[in-house]
UniProtKB/TrEMBL annotation:
This is 3-oxoacyl-[acyl-carrier protein] reductase. Transmembrane segments: none annotated. Belongs to the short-chain dehydrogenases/reductases (SDR) family. It holds the Pfam family adh_short_C2. InterPro entries: NAD(P)-bd_dom_sf, Sc_DH/Rdtase_CS, SDR_fam, Sec_Metab_Biosynth_SDR. It comes from the Bacteria. One of its GO terms (molecular function) is oxidoreductase activity. Keywords: NADP, Oxidoreductase.
Length: 248
């Protein structure tokens, strides 16, 4: 039997690695994509071995803001049908916004990292998405729904509008497109050295369940959306945030 194939951007760390781990358990072959080859290779080996399926995870080093590098992913897919594209790469990019030039650079960096990565990867793989049954998932943030992240909030919110269009375009081919919007997730590289004990405590206190999210919490939602049970779910935003944002 030919395994289903998933492409997970940012799959070498944090939430993406959790998604890759979950999809290996669900029987997918997984291509993980990021910029750091060493991080990706180590993650691919570890996730495959831990899942009892060595070789199930392959790594492709590519900066997904660069159209020329996105072609590497298409080459690695090698003409196979792609069952799921999980657009998880992204993050909050800081910058000096004290000048207009700095503001422009800061906004472009956040839009590139969070929007262009998803658009270019999805468009590159669109011709080989499984028909019927393909799945596209976009990783947004509660920052898109309640603000607080400036350019990052705006960039994540842009994914929602694009997801609605893409879901409309691909629906007749039985391909679904959905957004997963995480709240605070610890144990990823997202906050770098920006997180403090007070910041962690405040984010936990903002949830209704009194804990930080883990990559596996977000992976569970992605596994549902790319699985066979979710074929009637498309054009939706699924919040996975411990109740820190309600019903949006
Ligand atoms: N952690 C949270 O609390 C939280 C909350 C809401 C939403 N999110 C979102 O969840 C997603 C995953 O974040 P995370 O928390 O797991 O943080 P993370 O560990 O920093 O993961 C981000 C991943 O994206 C990859 N990446 C970034 N820019 C890329 C590019 N241009 N091309 C290819 N890969 C790129 C990074 O790998 P390289 O550096 O090697 O390229 C990294 O593996 C992000 O979209 C983030 O905005 C996170």
């Amino acid at each position: 039997m030919v395994e289903r194939l998933a492409v997970v951007s940012g799959g070498g760390t944090g939430i993406g690695a959790g998604v890759a781990r979950g999809l290996v358990a669900d029987g997918f072959d997984v291509l993980i994509v990021g910029r750091r080859a060493g991080v990706l290779d180590a993650a691919a080996e570890r996730i495959g071995a831990e899942g009892g399926r060595p070789g199930a995870v392959r790594a492709v080093a590519a900066d997904l803001t660069d159209p020329g590098q996105v072609d590497r992913v298409v080459e690695a897919v090698g003409g196979r049908g792609v069952d799921a594209v999980v657009n998880n790469a992204g993050g909050y990019l800081g910058g000096d916004t004290g000048t207009l030039a700095g503001t422009a650079a800061h906004w472009r960096a956040n839009l590139d990292a969070n929007v262009l990565t998803a658009v270019l990867l999805t468009e590159a793989l669109r011709p080989v998405l499984r028909r019927p049954g393909g799945r596209v998932v976009l990783l947004s943030s509660i920052a898109a729904q309640r603000g607080g992240g400036g350019a990052y909030s705006a960039a994540k919110a842009a994914l929602h509008g694009w997801a609605y269009d893409l879901a409309t375009q691909l629906g007749r081919e039985q391909i679904t497109v959905n957004v997963v919007s995480p709240g605070y997730v610890a144990e990823t590289e997202f906050f770098g050295d920006r997180m403090t004990p007070e910041g962690h405590a405040a984010r936990v206190a903002a949830t209704l369940v009194g804990r930080a999210g883990q990559p596996d919490d977000i992976a569970a939602a992605v596994r549902y959306l790319v699985g066979p049970a979710a074929g009637y779910v498309t054009g939706q935003v699924l919040g996975v945030n411990g109740g820190s944002v309600l019903g949006r």
